[in-house]
Specification:
Length: 325
């Protein structure tokens, strides 16, 4: 499983892309790349999520165990940050409830500025429920349905002329492409895997960024598949290239380990003193912004999230024992 160390590297890159897109000037006017870089980062994150979740469920189809562990990983920090946010921010009842229960990316959209990044958690949580229901009712057959759903969602986007959106029904094909990659990882032929290994990863990375830019139009509909092939080119790699070495490095591993907290925390901090001021003042504060973000993320990951993750494991193991007794 050593070759899957690259997934930690990609997770680290995904959060760095999101931070870059949200915090730094990237390009000018028509050639502005802030949104594309952030969207490329999210595409990588969603592919990884679909890939890992599918691998977990292929090995163990105990749905209560899966849901308990997933929700205990995501909900505690999300709710803590939301509690603090709503304590100091004016929000309607709909905005509070829809965000707390992860359906705020459905119409009518209930996101407010400090919680605007929570749309991706909504996509994630709704996908957890979807795949849990599919596996619960269809068992092994559910996995054959995932590639079909992926292509169907992409076609739905195309016929509705939606290149990118925050709604689950327009965005979940990125997670489903990761699910499809997991199926290919487990059941695909070595001959095709060897061909994917030979693909130029850097060109694929540029293609991914381009596929998130509005000027490329049709390429936007291929973004889930470009992201999946990009990650596949490193998963199936038999060569120790400089990129593989970087992806397996300790720095990206650490960033990956705190990436969830970084993502949740940085979104709210964008609407505090750390991000206020004119252009010069705002960017002068960026090093401090990043320092505060990563320090808080480190504390959260080590002393807060780990407690809930471990509790989730204990609860899921107890549920498993009860179901088998």
């Amino acid at each position: 499983m050593n070759r899957l160390q690259v997934l930690d590297g990609w997770r680290g890159i995904s959060i760095l892309f999101v931070l870059a897109g949200h915090l730094f000037p990237l390009g000018y006017q028509k050639f502005q790349f802030n949104a594309p870089i952030a969207a490329a980062g999210m595409a990588i994150f969603f592919i990884l999520s679909g890939f890992l979740i599918t691998n977990v469920l292929l090995r163990d189809q105990n749905i209560p165990k899966f849901l308990i562990r997933r929700f205990m990983r995501i909900v505690p920090l999300a709710w803590l940050v939301l509690f603090i946010t709503f304590l100091f921010t004016e929000a309607s009842t709909h905005e509070i409830i829809s965000t707390l229960f992860f359906y705020t990316n459905w119409e009518p959209i209930g996101l407010i500025a400090p919680t605007s990044h929570f749309w991706s958690l909504c996509v994630e949580v709704q996908f957890y429920i979807l795949i849990a229901l599919l596996v619960f009712f269809l068992k092994q057959k559910a996995f054959y349905l995932l590639p079909v759903l992926c292509i169907s969602i992409t076609c739905y986007r195309y016929f509705n002329d939606v290149q990118i959106a925050i709604n689950t029904y327009y965005r979940v094909d990125e997670i489903l492409a990761g699910c499809t990659l997991a199926l290919f990882y487990n059941y695909g032929t070595n001959r095709i895997k060897q061909k994917i290994d030979k693909l130029p990863t850097i060109i694929l990375l540029f293609l991914l960024i381009a596929s998130a830019h509005p000027v490329t139009e049709f390429l936007n509909y291929l973004r889930p598949y470009i992201a999946a092939i990009l990650i596949a080119s490193t998963i199936f790699s038999q060569r120790e290239t400089w990129l593989i070495t970087v992806l397996k490095g300790k720095l990206l591993f650490y960033i990956a380990s705190t990436s969830y907290a970084v993502y949740i925390i940085h979104g709210g901090l964008r609407y505090t003193w750390l991000a206020e001021g004119d252009i010069i003042e705002k960017y002068f504060k960026r090093p401090l912004f990043l320092l505060v973000t990563f320090v808080l993320a480190h504390i959260s990951t080590k002393y807060y999230e780990n407690y809930w993750v471990n509790l989730g494991k204990k609860l899921s193991n107890k549920a498993l024992k009860r179901s088998t007794s």
